[in-house]
Amino acid sequence: MSDAILIIEDEPRMRARLQRILAGLDYDRAALHGAANIAQGKALTGKMSFAAALVDLGLPDGSGIEFIRWLRARDADLPILVISAWSTEEMILGALRAGASGYVLKERDDVEIGVSIKSVLKGGAPIDPFIARRILGLVGEPIAADTAAASETDEALRTSLSEREIEILALVARGLANREIATRLNLSHWTIHTHIRNIYRKLAVNTRTQAVHEARLHGWLH
What we know:
This protein is α/β, with parallel strands linked by helices and 222 residues long. It has helices spanning 12-24, 38-47, 64-74, 89-98, 110-121, 129-139, 147-160, 163-173, 178-185, 189-203, 208-217, and strands at residues 5-8, 32-35, 52-55, 58-59, 62-63, 80-84, 102-105. Strands 2-1-3-6-7 form a 5-stranded parallel β-sheet, with helices on both faces. Strands 4-5 form a two-stranded antiparallel sheet.
C-alpha cells in the first residue's frame, strides 16, 4: 500500500504547514504531494495511488466537495480529511455527504490538526468539535414528518443491524481503526472489515463518518 499523501490546498503557506505537520508525524517529505488546485490533484491521482488525501474546499478551479466526490468514486476506502476554513452548514454537510472521512478547521493549532490527520490515517472519522456541535444542532432540529412512520423506519433499521454491528459502530464513533476494533473485540481485521461493509449497505452510506452520523441521528449512539 502506498504511503503517499495528497494535499489539495491553494494557499502555499497552509500547504507548507500541512507538510510540516506530516513531517512531524514521521512522514518522509518525498511522500507528501501538494497540489494548488483540482486539475493538479487529478493529474497526481492519475499517476500514483495515495494512502490519504487532505482537501481544502475553497479551490480556484472548482469545488473541493466535487473533488471529494470524484476521489470517493475512484477509491471507496481512501481516507479523505477536509481541512478548511469553511464552517457553513452547506459546506459541512456537502463534504460529508460527498464522502469526506473527517472535517477539521484550519484555525486549529498544529497539534489538533496532527491528531485529526493521525486519526483519519488509522481509519478514524475525526470531526472538529465546532463542526460536531453544528451537526448535533442540525440533528436536534424538529423535523416536519409523520412521527409514527419515522419511528417504524428507525425500528426497521435498528432490527436490521445486529448487536455486534451496533457495538462496532460505537467503537468507530470513538475514532478506533479497524485493527484496533479487531483487537478490542478479539476478532480478525477482515471480520471487522466485513461488518463495516454490511453496516454501510444497511444504512445506505459510503463512509465511517456518514455511518456514525446516521447512527446518532437514529439514537443508537450518544
